[in-house]
Every structure is written in structure tokens, then in C-alpha cells.
């Protein structure tokens, strides 16, 4: 029987066509999405008073940034205010596009008054809920908004398709300018004044003065499933959240799908996102239900001990107008303020899907191990002055491995890229504490921190393990740590001091939760692992802004890899100058 043979060049063309087709299918439907963010002054009335805030496009919270996995996003940011500003796309990997990450003096100089900068990045391998916010001083108090990354076209969620999707952003409201608050605190060395209210989608809710009309309402239909995209954009507080008489199913955290689990209350730290499914009641309940958020706090200072609420209202199935005043308003129960055991149990429930489609690529072997203490400390008062910090003789500070990070006056990424690190940063961040002590026991006599702009340098694709250990210096406290440029796997956690001989045996290498922000337990430790597969300079810091201002941050420098897609792209021509 005769057989036909294609000429070799035809075979080559066939193979090329096949790979082009596969590439096109992989990138099918990818779009370029353009946004313009004008940073403007904006008068807002809350809690019986009006003040001028800073906002994007005079919206508070700011506009939604919506894209699909695989899309390119171009955001033109125009600064119309007197403050310098920069925007961070929190949780976006920024693969090889570190110039668009946003933290001022780390990956860019801030955008000055009347200047413009274009953030340009592609959303690679990510889908879910994230957030964007200002990343300089305390400007993110009012400059923030949601990032919603939809799956690729023709791809579905790994859970029931919801009837409707709703974004719920938690924030903090200050009756005075937050910049004045942190400026005064850094000058006096004392703790900053706390916020005056928490907010749901910018509204404090009816438990606060003059706020009955400033209450967020979510109207729902009977017997439907709603996807709630919860985002904590609060400046300095972890928050508990619950909806009265309703169970929520957690399906995602930090834009990573989870094994679904049910809960009637949850914790969300600043910088974290949590997607939950809300199944509404099948019959009209003759009641409305408060959804409430209030702080989780274990530290020793003052905090805003108030509660923000919204109202979940059911539409009457027969279209009857039911006046909310005639309905019972049911309040949820939330954990106590310092409910550390609830927090430990709740956070342990997060597990990656670890499926074929959504694998958990946990580093099994570790190239570099680090042990970082995180906590508060002190700085001495300048001579001939009095301070309002600990014992009225020092200033509050915060550190990682006792190094309090000092932001330089130019961008670290620029200095690194052009080989001009002298006087900007050093590469000697300690891999473990310089002076070990009983971290969760009696604090050492000397609590002073060292100041410096120290970094860790990693070769491309190094597998990294970091144990983050809380300290009891000036009180044990939960610290939500955020790593820019990466997701990491939370392989272990515990209370007390980490035991390097016993604790690693209990690590989860199978389906640990993958996140970009995680709470280091109060009086405990947490172990994370990640691959350093993203060249650039990447900040890691506490997402309580007061601690960031006090120096609880450090930076990783990841070197270029050998491949063409493993190198930091050159800086854009409009990169702001300092």
C-alpha cells in the first residue's frame, strides 16, 4: 500500500503553525485595558463633618480596575495634588515589570505634583480579587480601590457560578488628615492617634454619629448565591467580619482559589482579600441583617475600638414594599477583640486547591533559609529633647532582625539597575538575628534598633524559606506581612518560639495556602516558602502602616535569570525622577 510523505519543509511549517495556534489559543481574548487615575482633592462628609481627602477621580473608594487573566493593563496616573504619590497594584506579580510595582523609593521615585507616570503590566497566571492603593506615607488611607481579575474567556470558577458579584471594601476614616497624624507621631516618637471609624465601601454605618444615611446596603433576592469580594484596605487594623444569621463559604484568598470551607465569621488583615459565597434564604425572613466588622487587636497601644456595619436586605418575592423600619434588624456575634485562638483556628482552614489545573508548586527543597524576627523596638531620643515613646525617654520603632529599614532618597531599583548602590543600599541584611534572645519571653534590656537600608540578594529561581518570628518587645502582636512581587506558601505556623529541630517535621508540603499577605501570629511564628523567580527589587513589610512607618520592612533583590523572559525589563522613559 502506497504511503505519502510530506516534504520536510511542509512538516516544519505544520509544526510552526501548530505552535502558533497553541500560542494564540493560550492568549485568546487577551486585551489591553487603559485606565486614567487622576489624583485629586475631594471634599467628603462623614461623622458630622466635612474634610478634604485625596482620591482617584474624586471617588472614594476609588474606581474598580477590571481585567481578565492574561490582559495587559496600562494605567496613566496624573498627580494634581501637592503631595508626592505612587500607586501599588497589591498582589500583582509584576513579572519582569518591577518598575510598575509602585512603592516609593523602592521601585520608583514618587510622582511629583503635575507629573504623570504610566504603569504598564501584564496579568500573568492570576485571577481573583486584589486591590490597588497609594504606597507612600499614609496616603492609602483614602487612595485605594479594588482589582478584579476575571478568568480567561470561556473559563469558569471552580465553584458554583454566582447570581451576582459584589465588592465589599473595608477602610478606616480619620476626621483629620492622616498625614498630619503620622507626621506628628514620628516627630514626638509616640503612638499615632487612631482612626475615628471603620468603613464598608467608604461608609461608616449607623452605629456612628450622623451616619444613619451613610450605611452600605446590599439588597439580595431569595434563594440565590452571591460572590462577595472582601478587601481589607484599612490602614492599621485587622478586622473580624460576619453577617448575622448567614453562613459564608470561603472560596479564595489573595486571588488564590481555596478548598471551600464554611464559616459564620472570618478574619481579614490589611492587604488581604477573601472571596466568599453567600447563599441567601429560600423564604422571606421578615428581618434585615447587619454585616459588621470590628478590629482584632493584641498589642499594648490604643486602637479604634468601634464597629462598622452595613445592612443585608431581602427583596420581597411578591414585590411588596417592606419598610426597613418595620423589619427586625439582627446583629451578628463577632469574636472578642483579642481572640487569638479563633484567629489561629480560622487561618488554619485555608488550603490551596492543589489540583491539576491549580497546582500548589511548593518548593520541596530549600536553597536559602532565613529566620526573621518581626516586632517593635525603640530609638533613642535626640539630645536635649523629650519623647512620647516607651518610658517617655525613647521613640517607637519597628524592625526585622532588629534592623529598622530606612527609605533612601532615590529608588533602590534604579540604583540597582544602573549599578550605583553606594550610599543608597547595602547587601548585608542579616539572615538571622544578630543577638538571639527568648523571642516570646522576657524582652532584652536593650530594645534599641539598628537603622539601615539593607537588602538580601538572591540568585534567580532560588528556593527560599523564611521563618517569621513575632517578638514580645513592647508586647506580642500580630503582624500582617506582605511580600511584593511574589506569592508564597504558608507551610507552617505555631505559638511560642520556633523550634528548628521539631517544627519543620509538621510543615505542609501538599496543599498549603498560597498568599501575598499573611498574619504572623501574636506571640508565635510562621514559615513561608517561595521561588525567587521574578527579577527586581521587592519590598517585604508589615501592612499595618504605623509599623511600616516605624521601619518594619526590608527588601529582596532578585538577580536576572539566563532566559530572555527572566530579566528585568529596562526602565520606562517616563519613570519619575527624585
Automatic annotation (TrEMBL):
<dbReference type="Pfam" id="PF00394">
    <property type="entry name" value="Cu-oxidase"/>
</dbReference>
<feature type="domain" description="Plastocyanin-like">
    <location>
        <begin position="430"/>
        <end position="560"/>
    </location>
</feature>
<feature type="domain" description="Plastocyanin-like">
    <location>
        <begin position="165"/>
        <end position="316"/>
    </location>
</feature>
<dbReference type="Pfam" id="PF07732">
    <property type="entry name" value="Cu-oxidase_3"/>
</dbReference>
<keyword id="KW-0052">Apoplast</keyword>
<keyword id="KW-0186">Copper</keyword>
<dbReference type="InterPro" id="IPR002355">
    <property type="entry name" value="Cu_oxidase_Cu_BS"/>
</dbReference>
<comment type="similarity">
    <text>Belongs to the multicopper oxidase family.</text>
</comment>
<dbReference type="InterPro" id="IPR017761">
    <property type="entry name" value="Laccase"/>
</dbReference>
<keyword id="KW-0325">Glycoprotein</keyword>
<keyword id="KW-0560">Oxidoreductase</keyword>
<dbReference type="InterPro" id="IPR034288">
    <property type="entry name" value="CuRO_1_LCC"/>
</dbReference>
<comment type="function">
    <text>Lignin degradation and detoxification of lignin-derived products.</text>
</comment>
<protein>
    <recommendedName>
        <fullName>Laccase</fullName>
        <ecNumber>1.10.3.2</ecNumber>
    </recommendedName>
</protein>
<dbReference type="InterPro" id="IPR011706">
    <property type="entry name" value="Cu-oxidase_C"/>
</dbReference>
<feature type="signal peptide">
    <location>
        <begin position="1"/>
        <end position="30"/>
    </location>
</feature>
<dbReference type="InterPro" id="IPR045087">
    <property type="entry name" value="Cu-oxidase_fam"/>
</dbReference>
<keyword id="KW-0479">Metal-binding</keyword>
<dbReference type="InterPro" id="IPR033138">
    <property type="entry name" value="Cu_oxidase_CS"/>
</dbReference>
<keyword id="KW-0677">Repeat</keyword>
<keyword id="KW-0439">Lignin degradation</keyword>
<keyword id="KW-0964">Secreted</keyword>
<dbReference type="InterPro" id="IPR034285">
    <property type="entry name" value="CuRO_2_LCC"/>
</dbReference>
<dbReference type="InterPro" id="IPR011707">
    <property type="entry name" value="Cu-oxidase-like_N"/>
</dbReference>
<dbReference type="InterPro" id="IPR034289">
    <property type="entry name" value="CuRO_3_LCC"/>
</dbReference>
<keyword id="KW-0732">Signal</keyword>
<dbReference type="InterPro" id="IPR001117">
    <property type="entry name" value="Cu-oxidase_2nd"/>
</dbReference>
<feature type="domain" description="Plastocyanin-like">
    <location>
        <begin position="41"/>
        <end position="153"/>
    </location>
</feature>
<dbReference type="InterPro" id="IPR008972">
    <property type="entry name" value="Cupredoxin"/>
</dbReference>
<dbReference type="Pfam" id="PF07731">
    <property type="entry name" value="Cu-oxidase_2"/>
</dbReference>
Amino acid at each position: 500500500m502506497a504511503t505519502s510523505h510530506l516534504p520536510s519543509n511542509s512538516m516544519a511549517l505544520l509544526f510552526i503553525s501548530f505552535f502558533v495556534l497553541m500560542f494564540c489559543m493560550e492568549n485568546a481574548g487577551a486585551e489591553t485595558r487603559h485606565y486614567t487615575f487622576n489624583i485629586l482633592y475631594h471634599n467628603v462628609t462623614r461623622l458630622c463633618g466635612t474634610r478634604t481627602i485625596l482620591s482617584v477621580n474624586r471617588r472614594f473608594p476609588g474606581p474598580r480596575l477590571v481585567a481578565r487573566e492574561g490582559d495587559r493593563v496600562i494605567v496613566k496616573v496624573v498627580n494634581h495634588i501637592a503631595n508626592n504619590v505612587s500607586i501599588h497594584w497589591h498582589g500583582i506579580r509584576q513579572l519582569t515589570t518591577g518598575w510598575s510595582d509602585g512603592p516609593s523609593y523602592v521601585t520608583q521615585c514618587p510622582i511629583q505634583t503635575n507629573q504623570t507616570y504610566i504603569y504598564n503590566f501584564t496579568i500573568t497566571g492570576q485571577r481573583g480579587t486584589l486591590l490597588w492603593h497609594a504606597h507612600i506615607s499614609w496616603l492609602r488611607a483614602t487612595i485605594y480601590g479594588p482589582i478584579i481579575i476575571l478568568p480567561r474567556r470561556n473559563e469558569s470558577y471552580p465553584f458554583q457560578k454566582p447570581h451576582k458579584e459584589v465588592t465589599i471594601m473595608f477602610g478606616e476614616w480619620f476626621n483629620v488628615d492622616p498625614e498630619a497624624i503620622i507626621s506628628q507621631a514620628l516627630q514626638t516618637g509616640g503612638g499615632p492617634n487612631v482612626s475615628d471609624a471603620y468603613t464598608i465601601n467608604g461608609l461608616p454605618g449607623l452605629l456612628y454619629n450622623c451616619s444613619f444615611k451613610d450605611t452600605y446596603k446590599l439588597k439580595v433576592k431569595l434563594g440565590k448565591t452571591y460572590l462577595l469580594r472582601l478587601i481589607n484596605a484599612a490602614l492599621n487594623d485587622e478586622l473580624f467580619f460576619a453577617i448575622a444569621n448567614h453562613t459564608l463559604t470561603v472560596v479564595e484568598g489573595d486571588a488564590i482559589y481555596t478548598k471551600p470551607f464554611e464559616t459564620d465569621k472570618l478574619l481579614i488583615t490589611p492587604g488581604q482579600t477573601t472571596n466568599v459565597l453567600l447563599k441567601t434564604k429560600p423564604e422571606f425572613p421578615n428581618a434585615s441583617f447587619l454585616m459588621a466588622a470590628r478590629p482584632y487587636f493584641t498589642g499594648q497601644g490604643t486602637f479604634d475600638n468601634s464597629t462598622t456595619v452595613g445592612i443585608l436586605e431581602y427583596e420581597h418575592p411578591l414585590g411588596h414594599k417592606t419598610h426597613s423600619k418595620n423589619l427586625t434588624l439582627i446583629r451578628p456575634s463577632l469574636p472578642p477583640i483579642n481572640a487569638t485562638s479563633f484567629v489561629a483556628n480560622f487561618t488554619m482552614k485555608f488550603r490551596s486547591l492543589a489540583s491539576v489545573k491549580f497546582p500548589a508548586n511548593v518548593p520541596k527543597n530549600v536553597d536559602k533559609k532565613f529566620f526573621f524576627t518581626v516586632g517593635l523596638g525603640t530609638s533613642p531620643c535626640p539630645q536635649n529633647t523629650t519623647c512620647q515613646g516607651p518610658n517617655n525617654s525613647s521613640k517607637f520603632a519597628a524592625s526585622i532582625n532588629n534592623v529598622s529599614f530606612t527609605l533612601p532618597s532615590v529608588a533602590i531599583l534604579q540604583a540597582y539597575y544602573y549599578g550605583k548602590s553606594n550610599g543608597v543600599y547595602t547587601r548585608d541584611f542579616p539572615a538571622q538575628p544578630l543577638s538571639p534572645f527568648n523571642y516570646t519571653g522576657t524582652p532584652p534590656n536593650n530594645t534599641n534598633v539598628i537603622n539601615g537600608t539593607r537588602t538580601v540578594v538572591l540568585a534567580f529561581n532560588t528556593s527560599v524559606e523564611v521563618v517569621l518570628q513575632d517578638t514580645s518587645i513592647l508586647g506580642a502582636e500580630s503582624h500582617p506581612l506582605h511580600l511584593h512581587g511574589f506569592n508564597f506558601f504558608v507551610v507552617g505556623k505555631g505559638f511560642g518560639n520556633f523550634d528548628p529541630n521539631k517544627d519543620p517535621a509538621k510543615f505542609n508540603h501538599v496543599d498549603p495556602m498560597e498568599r501575598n499577605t499573611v498574619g504572623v501570629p501574636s506571640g508565635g511564628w510562621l514559615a513561608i516558602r517561595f521561588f525567587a523567580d521574578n527579577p527586581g527589587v521587592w519590598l517585604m513589610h508589615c501592612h499595618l502602616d504605623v509599623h511600616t512607618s516605624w521601619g518594619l520592612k526590608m527588601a529582596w533583590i532578585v538577580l536576572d535569570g539566563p532566559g530572555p523572559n527572566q530579566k528585568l525589563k529596562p526602565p520606562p522613559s517616563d519613570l519619575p525622577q527624585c
